[in-house]
């Protein structure tokens, strides 16, 4: 997995370099050549759901390398079929999995989003990390049923473990061993499941960050907070195409959801129907049935075992948002502190952090504070 990129757009990921390695089809790295682009197809799949207010709810993406010489973009080379992803690289990275096999693998971090999110949630933050830590590269993925990965036909069940296995398969295809894995909310349990499922001892110390999620029971926020299950249920009753993002935002706010969450949700709408005189419309990019199943799995999945018996060389960091929408029970905090002491004795590590002045959306509410807390994971390279 490699590609030297510091600025990436969502639809076409600009990449500065490109030298070749027969070992890996499909990415790029930084050298003095014309930019290549990743072209991501985003077919929309109809979502037809009927759910109760508390009901819970994956289709084919192709991320492809398109040679800039092919101006019409008609020729597609080596489509990837595991997950949609972007690789954001610091300026000092000179390695690509398709290029020079002799070049050492740069330190890699994986960033995972939460339910109803996408890799774009991490874009600005990842570019900031790449600028501050130019020797690092950052892999941003769309988890199954989300974003551009929603067009991939994934077998069920759609669960925390299956989402984690997707990421492990992608890392295997790209021949990368990450040194840092950061997961927000649902993505935090995915990160823990990756550690649990990895087929062999990790090749080097790995630092895992679980952002505002506990290993076990998911507790809904206080009255007036946004509840993911209710949000999924609300979205299931909307038409597959809408004429206005503003109308969706207004409907969500009228139903009691916060404006911030409403504006975040409509980032999952893609414009369609722009031919000639036809009025434009917007289609949902996610696969809502699969997402509902994933959220149910998030509520039911218990990852305490991996926290209380941390593999040697792994360090698990929990970050609690001071104004979190999710309540952290005293029992959860107690078990994490007990795990801290035990992990030290067994060659692993567990640590608890608190991000001040932030709600559940930590990378949006207090990006500077989050950056400071995460930064020590990337130092020393």
From TrEMBL:
<keyword id="KW-0378">Hydrolase</keyword>
<dbReference type="GO" id="GO:0016787">
    <property type="term" value="F:hydrolase activity"/>
</dbReference>
<protein>
    <recommendedName>
        <fullName>AB hydrolase-1 domain-containing protein</fullName>
    </recommendedName>
</protein>
<feature type="domain" description="AB hydrolase-1">
    <location>
        <begin position="110"/>
        <end position="371"/>
    </location>
</feature>
<dbReference type="Pfam" id="PF12697">
    <property type="entry name" value="Abhydrolase_6"/>
</dbReference>
<dbReference type="InterPro" id="IPR029058">
    <property type="entry name" value="AB_hydrolase_fold"/>
</dbReference>
<dbReference type="InterPro" id="IPR000073">
    <property type="entry name" value="AB_hydrolase_1"/>
</dbReference>
<comment type="similarity">
    <text>Belongs to the peptidase S33 family.</text>
</comment>
<dbReference type="InterPro" id="IPR051601">
    <property type="entry name" value="Serine_prot/Carboxylest_S33"/>
</dbReference>
């Amino acid at each position: 997995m490699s590609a030297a990129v510091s600025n990436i757009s969502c639809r076409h990921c600009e990449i500065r370099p490109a030298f070749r390695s027969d070992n890996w089809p499909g990415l790029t790295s930084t050298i003095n050549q014309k930019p290549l682009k990743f072209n991501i197809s985003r077919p929309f799949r109809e979502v037809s759901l009927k759910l109760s207010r508390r009901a819970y709810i994956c289709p084919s993406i192709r991320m492809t390398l398109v040679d800039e010489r092919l101006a019409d973009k008609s020729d597609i080379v080596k489509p990837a079929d595991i997950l949609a992803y972007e690789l954001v690289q610091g300026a000092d990275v000179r390695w690509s999995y398709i290029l020079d096999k002799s070049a050492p693998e740069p330190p890699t971090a994986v960033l995972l989003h939460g339910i109803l999110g996408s890799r774009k949630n991490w874009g600005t933050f990842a570019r900031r990390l790449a600028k501050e830590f130019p020797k690092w590269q950052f892999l941003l993925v769309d988890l199954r049923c989300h974003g551009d990965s929603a067009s991939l036909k994934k077998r069920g069940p759609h669960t925390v473990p299956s989402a984690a296995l997707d990421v492990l398969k992608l890392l295997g295809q790209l021949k990368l061993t990450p040194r840092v894995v950061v997961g927000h909310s649902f993505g935090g349990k995915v990160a823990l499941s990756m550690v649990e499922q990895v087929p062999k001892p990790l090749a080097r110390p790995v630092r895992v960050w679980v952002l505002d999620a506990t290993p076990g029971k998911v507790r809904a926020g206080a009255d007036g907070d946004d509840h993911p299950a209710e949000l999924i249920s609300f979205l299931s009753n909307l038409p597959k195409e809408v004429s206005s993002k503003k109308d969706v935002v207004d409907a969500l706010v009228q139903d009691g959801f916060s404006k911030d969450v409403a504006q975040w949700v409509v980032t999952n709408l893609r414009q369609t129907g722009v031919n000639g005189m036809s009025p434009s419309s917007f289609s949902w990019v996610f696969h809502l049935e699969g997402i509902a199943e994933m959220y149910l799995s998030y509520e039911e999945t218990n990852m305490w075992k991996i926290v209380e018996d941390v593999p040697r060389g792994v360090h698990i960091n929990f970050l609690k948002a001071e104004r979190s929408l999710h309540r952290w029970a005293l029992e959860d905090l107690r078990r994490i502190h007990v795990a801290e002491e035990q992990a030290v004795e067994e060659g692993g590590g567990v640590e608890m952090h608190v991000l001040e002045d932030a709600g559940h959306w930590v990378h949006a509410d207090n990006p500077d504070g989050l950056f400071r807390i995460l930064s020590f994971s990337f130092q020393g390279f």
